[in-house]
Amino acid sequence: MTTSISLRGAGRRFGTAWALADVSLELEPGVIGLLGPNGAGKTTLLRLLATALPPSQGELTVLGRDPAVPAQRTEVRRRLGYLPQEIGFPRGFTAFAFVDYIAVLKEWTQPDRRHAEVRRVLDLVGVSGSSAKRLRAMSGGQRRRVALAQALLGSPPVLILDEPTAGVDPEQRAVLRTVLAELARTSTVVLSTHQTEDVAALCDRVVVLDRGRVRYDGQVTELVGRAAGRVWLADAPDPAASVSWRTGTGRYRNVAEDARSGVEHVEPSLEDAYLLLRGSEPGSGGLGGSTDRGQAEELTS
Amino acid sequence: MTAAAPATVAPAARARPTSLAVLARFEARRFTLNPIFLAAAALTAYILWDRQRGVVTDTNTVSVYPAIFLGGLGMVAAFWLTQSMRRSADALDVAPTSWPARTGAICLAAAIPLLCGCLSLLAIVIFQHVPGIWSYGALGTSAGVAAALSQTVVPALGGPLLGVALARWVRFPGAAVVLFLILYGWVTLTYTLAASHRHSTLIVMLRFFAPFAFFTEEDSPGRVETWRGSPWFFLGWQLCLCAVAVIVALLRGADPGLRTRLLRLLAGVLALTALLYALAVVGGWAYPVISTPGAAPVPIAG
Question: In DSSP terms, which residues pair with A287 in a beta bridge?
Fold first, then answer.
């Protein structure tokens, strides 16, 4: 399979602090999930891939082109869709006008084709019915979908998405998964999220970042497999567990770094595996003992 | 909502590289619909309509309004228009259309206020009732044309261009309003000083060190003072300031190669600007004169 994005020893420094260090990745068409705690360097990595930031060290090529060269950077940007983590909207714009403006910047100069494409992407994300509505009057979830729509313009071969499903309701998330999965047949979709279920549902491959370094890069199933035998249900929090929380059934879900026998094992989820990975990180301070679900989610975010 | 697969757009369906004209049209539409600019255009139209009901004895009382509204408020409108996209910068900055191209498009949209400035001048020439040829005092026809252009048309272009340059480099949202007040205050101050120190070269220099200047003053009904300085060279200085504003705006986000070329161009334009400024100060009438209809201009005693 053709490599779309190649990072070799790439890093990015802000002042004296390295937000990303020595990252080497070869990304191919498909959906690649990016997980990591806050401050892990996910957004910095995505901004590098989106050519919004140059690396301070190492090499980056996107679709075989070097973004450090202005002409090649423009070529890359013609084939790139990017959804930033936070996107503001200019005042007075409707959803259609905003995406239309971005389409002009993306060199869709013929009005008929441009407008058809804008309608198509707004339809894909489910806001075509509100396209004449001012962005200011839209809900956070709707605005997020409009932001995603601009990234989808032209079905780009490289799509960089920073938390695309944040604030989006479950039904819309399911639809967006369908859209992204379809697009990933031909495109490389890099998806950063705190929603491990999105990664489990969409991605074959997952990259876990921590403190600016790649902690794991591999198949989702392999990462989940590492948690096999380490997740079980019990009536009370198990002191041997790295983390445990009370589930909706009233029983406690326990996750431990060491495999346990003689307990009621359950199928591990990607979240369990991620928590284990985080807990085993030297210097991470571990995951701590018993907690409730909310605290566990905080740990993942 | 369509949950189906996204229809991949064939490369052939994609348009050719962005034409600056498409983006400029987009920006021109935004400029035209900007509430501040609409208010400025409406105020200009109202003032010109209101003034044509009587006889204009001092052109300064007419020409200043398009400058204030189209130039001053146009600057504020252009500033906010340019800054409005900052909120979406993360998404816009990775589009293939570069910052300088986007800036260039907004600069081209300044053709809208420029057009309004031209129409204002046309309205003044056609509809204002001016008694005789002395409305610009002792300035000849040619110099009078230059004065009219510099007071009515060029500010309508220069103000918005200055607003774009300011927005590209200054984040403070009120910067354009502050600059407008500073320029208004400066022009008023130097006008007042010029009226009381007609012979002072320093005052001429201060009066012309601005994007707008007066060349005449009505002394009494039918008597107009013409001050020192050349309207043609002042017009040149104004146009150079417009060019400086465009270059400074384009510098933001320019790639190293373009930046180098722009800096070289800026150096050349600045040198020309300084030259035209000097010529504006020393050119024209070497001393202030006073004129009355049908009589030769008379030097004003120092």
Answer: none
Q: Which residues of A touch B15 (CB under 8 A)?
A: 107-110, 113-114
Going from N- to C-terminal start, the domains of chain A cover: 1-79+157-219, 88-155, 226-300
**Identity at B182, one-letter amino acid code:** I
pTM above 0.90, yes or no: no
- Does ipTM exceed 0.85? no
Say if A163 is an interface residue toward chain B (CB within 8 Å).
no
B261 near A CB under 8 A:
no
For B164-176, b/e burial (b = at least 16 CB within 10 A) is bbbbbeeeeeebb
Using alpha carbons, list the distances in angstroms from residue B151 to A78, A192, A244: 44, 56, 76
Question: Tell me: the pLDDT tens digits for B220-255?
Answer: 777 888 899 999 999 999 999 999 999 999 999 999
Judged by a CB distance cut-off of 8 A, whether residue A125 touches chain B is yes
**Residue-range domain boundaries for chain B:** 20-294
A:B CB pairs within 8 Å:
111
pLDDT tens profile B95-147: 999 899 999 999 999 999 999 999 999 988 887 766 655 567 788 888 989 99
Comparing C-alpha atoms, which of A190, A212, A214, A208 is closest to residue A274? A208
Strand ranges, E, within B72-191: none
Of B8, B9, B22, the CB nearest to A109: B22
Whether the Cβ atoms of residue A158 and residue A5 lie closer than 8 Å to each other: yes
Q: Does domain A1-79+157-219 have CATH number 3.40.630.30?
A: no
Contact yes or no for B298/B229 (Cβ under 8 A):
no
CA atoms of A227 and B138, how far apart (whole Å): 94
Interface probe for A, chosen from B25, B94, B102 (most Cβ of A below 10 Å), is B94
Whether A23 contacts A36, CB under 8 Å: no
Angle at A60 between CA A196 and CA A41, to 5 degrees: 35
Residue A225 CB coordination number (10 Å) = 12
